[in-house]
Amino acid sequence: MISFNLIIYYFWGPQNRQKSSTTPKQAISALSLPMVNDIYDQSLSIQNKDVRWSVSLRTGQIYKWTLLHYHHSSDHKYLSLLDTQKGYAGMGLFSRDSGTLVPVLPESIVWENNQIHPGLVVVSSTGGNLVETYRIKGNVVTLRMHFLPSGYLVSAHLENPSHVNVVFGSGLNFGVSALKQTYGTEFQGPVYEGAGKFQEVKKDGSLFFDSGLKWVGNEDKYFIGYIASSTPGFSVEIKKNGSSSWFQLLSKNSIDFKIYGEPKRYKLLKEQDSGLIDTIDFGWFMFGRILLISFLAKPIFLLMSYLVGIVHNYGVAIILVTILIKIIFSPLAYMSYKSIYEMQSLQPEIKKLQTKFKDDKAALNQALMELYKERRVNPLGGCLPMLVQIPVFVALYNILNNTVELRQAPFILWIHDLSLKDPYYVLPIVMGITMILQYKLNPSSPDPVQQKVMMFVPVIMTFFFLNFPAGLVLYWLVNNVLTIGQQYLTVNYLLKPRKA
Q: Do the Cβ atoms of 222 and 242 come closer than 8 Å?
């Protein structure tokens, strides 16, 4: 099963996703996004400790949502969760005429009661307010946005006393970073929570909700952008085409709402809404989510986070968690080794029975069952303890592969980001060597074909692990080293008297 996951990673990973993704122009055209005559040369940058928002002084729209503590791995430039192409609308206010969104230009834009000019303003310790006033068909509509000195939130109030048909649009792919996904099965696109249930929008088209949504947004592997409102009486529309999406609030009344564009950090999401934690893919396995794996992953992740608070290094925390899990499962591992070596001791007698009953499979099976019963050996005893551990291994795998906390987290020396592959392939090569040693310690199979297959497993696994995130390879390497030590101790000390 683990090898099958690796094959999925390799063949449906970054290479194929890049080939199949649509270009930005195709995606924008398919969504029929509103056009604006704006080259974004007149803009105001509003900055706090975590985010810089770029606001067009022509349209009043936010066209960049830049995270100041995250960068692209390719060029180390700051990462934006809203990167609008010139000529296309960003995040902001529109009027709706016969179902078509029409950008509206503000009559005035005011920052802290002062007329503003292009440049940069830093949000003070008390916060800052941006007020945009529009006149739509003679009616005044006001959009007020409050910025905090830190964090990823913009609180907004839309004042619409004349009940004009206006829309607040998210902009294209708000919440989705420009980073390519590192796993072909990860979801990227629109998400929402309604009726207490988290949902992913996987089909292309348009979804309309007249009530009942707590929040709506877009997510990718590490980041999310969403809008939440507790004000009743507004509707939400989600549009999706391929890898591109757009969502919007529709209201003829005044509404309050909150806009977030942020990393999917567990603690951060939990403080905002516990339902947002489901956007972190803790429970993925094969082609879907499994509740048991998610249930196991969350406490393991919290334990790792606690250890990071002590050792201040995610690499060290991975090592400590791996050691702890190995200790917890050591009795099961002992049972597995014991069963394997007991089965190995029966091989001479099994061969005799196979020769004796070579033409009678029913008699052979009956004789084998009597032999196992007489010697008190369970032929499945080597597998069952390992099956119990698989959900924990998969849960830890998801933690290391899907949590933004490991993104840009350094380990030692040449490993500066545990979410990226080892640039010099040291960890995967050493891991491959440990797999060979582990194979040498295992009892040899009587089947020569199986022996040859097992000889190639370390090579194949090393090949797959070359492009895996360094955090995952580190976990696998440490687990292999601990397994080798456990095998050596069990075979040479704990089982030795029984072998004699």
A: no
Residue 186, phi then psi, degrees to nearest 5:
-75, 145
Q: What pTM did the predictor assign?
A: 0.84
User: Which residue type occupies 308?
Assistant: V
CA-nearest of 323, 298, 325, 473 to 395 is: 298
What pLDDT does 12 receive? 46
pLDDT tens digits for range 211-242: 778 999 999 989 999 999 988 878 999 999 88
Instruction: Give the total residue count for the chain.
Output: 500
Residue 131 has pLDDT above 70, yes or no: yes
CA angle (83, 249, 200) in 5-degree steps? 70
Alpha carbons 142 and 106: distance in angstroms, whole number: 9
pLDDT on residue 154 = 97
Please answer whether residues 57 and 110 qualify as being in contact, where contact means their C-beta atoms are separated by less than 8 angstroms.
no
Q: What is the crossing angle of helices 448-465 and 2-11, to 10°?
A: 50
Q: Supply the pLDDT for residue 18.
A: 37
DSSP state of 88: B
Give Cβ neighbours of residue 361 (< 8 Å, ≥ 6 apart).
none
- Helix, strand, or coil here: 129? strand
Structure-token pair, residue 96:
């709706």
Query: CA–CA separation, 57 vs 107, rounded Å?
Result: 10
Is there a contact between 50 and 69 (Cβ–Cβ < 8 Å)? yes
Q: How far apart are CA 228 and CA 67, in angstroms?
A: 20
Radius of gyration of the chain (CA): 29
Q: What is the pLDDT of residue 377?
A: 78
Amino acid at 31: L
